[in-house]
Amino acid sequence: MIDAPDFAAHIAPMDLSFAEFLIPVSGFSGPLFTILVLALVSDWVFGDFPWLFSRIGHPVVWVGNLISWFEKRLNRPERSPKDLILRGAVTSLAVIITAGLFGAFVQFISSFGEIFLFFEILVVAVLIAQKGLYQHVKAVSVALKKDGLAGGRYAVSMIVGRDPDKLDEAGVSRAAIESCAENFSDGVVAPLFWYVLAGPIGICAYKAINTLDSMIGHRSERYLYFGRFAARLDDVVNFIPARISGGVICLAAFLGAKTNGRAAWHTMLADAKKHKSPNAGWQEAAFAGALDFSLAGPRQYGDEIVDDPYIGTGRRDLDAADIDRALRLFGLACLINAAWPIILKLLWVGA
Known about the structure:
The chain has helices at 4-8, 32-46, 50-56, 59-74, 81-110, 117-127, 130-156, 169-216, 228-237, 239-255, 261-271, 280-291, 320-350; strands at residues 295-301, 304-311. It has one domain. The protein contains 13 helices and 2 strands; from the N terminus they run ααααααααααααββα. It is globular, with a radius of gyration of 21 Å. It has a two-stranded antiparallel sheet with strand order 1-2. The protein is mostly helical.
């Protein structure tokens, strides 16, 4: 069988065919960009493959179970803060290394030939959550329209940690849109970024870090010290993807209908720093400016009230129709996000 580089040698230099997408980029193994295209399409069509993972469990659930196993054994409240930070770091590193080894195994299997690339495509498709995020946010819009405030509160409680009983319709709608904005980076852009940078090892390690942050990277009494390493590491690995996410949303706002790209850009630069997270503010501010919304602001998590400033200067009285507008912007941003690695590949081949 002729391998991809030899096959491509028989094609005219300016004839960019499918075969040329099988040429590995220096520093990466396997036909990276073909895998990406197929994985992104698979994710958008099939989502989280419920017919498969309802039987064997989702990889993120595997990681979550491993985190829980370590946490129950190592997170002892009677220990000193320094010891808890060390134990949390050990937990984080053990989980990340395990996830990275799984990614290395997938990469090794994929090296056997084209037919084995299916495993890598499946892993990438499952760990990039375009459709899953869309469906969860869309469910809030549908519930508000069909079942009113009670339905919207229940649907939004599936994706945010704030107290849903304290939310009116505008609060439910803002919570859903904020979740869409923030998770565009964590669930879509960052996994793609780390896959392009480091292949299956990169995307698996990233999802482990992100899951660690979701489970133990809180400032609650239980996780204040034990989860500190995980929270700081999550900030580091999301630093570049978050800013890419903001730029992608701004570009989507320039290209989209009834969105304001200029306002998205200016709001992002002005208000991103208002968010308590060093990363989440970029995409949330871009969404707010693009759609003329005010997001964030005071929120209640259980008995705790978080008195954060508003991001953006637009409307606060949002509803289900505004969630749908945000999802249209999200969909266009996903298309742009899928395009940048392909454009990079075209430039590489041209060079």
